[in-house]
Amino acid sequence: MKKFEFVVPEESAGARFDRFIAEKLTDVSRSRIKNVIEEGVATLNGKPAKAGETVRCGDKAVFVLPDARVLSAEPENIPIDIIYEDDCIAVINKPQGMVVHPACGAENGTLVNALLYNLSSLSSINGVIRPGIVHRLDKDTSGLLVVAKNDDAHRELQRQIQKKEAKRYYIALLDGNVKEDNGVINQPVGRSRTDRKKMAVVPDGRSAETHFKVIERFMRYTLCEFELKTGRTHQIRVHASYMRHPVTGDPVYGGSNAFKLNGQMLHAYKLVLTHPATKETMTFTAPLPEYFTAVLDILRKKS
Fold it and tell me: What is the structure's pLDDT at 142?
């Protein structure tokens, strides 16, 4: 770990914080600088710095650069629920509690480790840490993921997601009674200004659009379907919290946990896409996991 301290000179006044650091540390990539800033360990005048904030002459900047770590992914004999597989794609029903790809603090036991063991090939576009991974689910979100087995399939699936042609549907239990039967949340999502480990609705965030409709109401909870139109980090969880109806079991964004859950009640239950090779429209579904149905059974008995 290296610690750098700078005093902003007059000629750098008015620059963005991340660009100022990049000018000082020319051998460090902008993306790595941004990642460090988002971790909340860089400061400006003693306070956590934001990448886009403006520096002024005389400001004191501190930037802590962690030692680089080389991660790799090895095949592991971990059983996974493969919903569908052919030469181009595989559709996986990921369990709650499984991390999608290796990262610091979760270097094995991930879905990628399982994919390397269970599938004959994976696309190489995302490198050795995320082979085949086209989109992700949070660790404690269960449900469907499509995996690319070759680079052509990967590029086509990415295009479908970017163009909003692929459709991703989730079911979530929310705290409280949602008054509207359906609606659209169109609020930008970015790093929280008070906790850099969380996301939040922020004015300078990336555009994020989530559609919802009520499936069933209980006394203190509401079962909803969500459709993602964009794919921002923690998007449904952030938008649900913004509605003041956080996902049940999600302590990060204010969800209650009366049922002693191991994570949020959020399940990616349906995926609609066009097959990269055959161009056939394909729809995949995954039933709610047992922990989810058990809570719904309790609520229905009380209603």
Answer: 98
